[in-house]
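user: can you give me the structure for this one chain? tokens are fine.
assistant: on it. calling the predictor now.
[tool input]
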Amino acid sequence: MTRPPTAAQRRVIDAADPVTGRLSGTEAQLAALVRRGLAFRHPRPPHAHFLTPAGHRIRESAGEEPQAAPEPAAATAGVFTARTGGEEEPPPAGPARLREVRSAWEGLLELRRMTNADGATDRPCGWERTHLVQAAALALEAAGHPPAGPDGDGYRVRATPQPEAVAVHGPGGEELHACAVTLEKAGWQVGEHTEPRSRERYLLASPRRM
């Protein structure tokens, strides 16, 4: 069984940027995390260090066993979380939330630039492929689409049994089409489908690779 990170290493992991996973620490601390497969050093200047998927899982586990499919949650303890729709206690709307969303989206674009081999920002990166629901929800919220409240209309992004695919439920007609356009612009492949029993229209989206 892999040895858990030391207390000092855990502090560095916990302090990582919640969206990009960018790390701050001493060279020794960062090198130790790289050796353990919890971080990687970007090959291009400024040679920043970022969490690997394993490092992200440790950061999110809070000392517990990683969850295979965490439930959608609102922002807690000052950590940004994209609105997936239908949260019982959504974060307050307003200018502060808009700034948080804009900053998170800009950080995600920077992560794409730093971690995609060709530096492309129009295609999802590895972090998004391991956080499908959050990545798709961030793209929608950053574009101004309204997430569903506890009982209201709006989008709901949910995991699916299919690998690398999420479903977007909620809005219908032109609103659903607008969500599809946003995701396509953000680098996702999107198809519109109909639920056989309810006849509800929904989107199935997966990160584009090329």
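assistant: here you go. The longest strand covers residues 188-194. Residues 81-210 form one domain.
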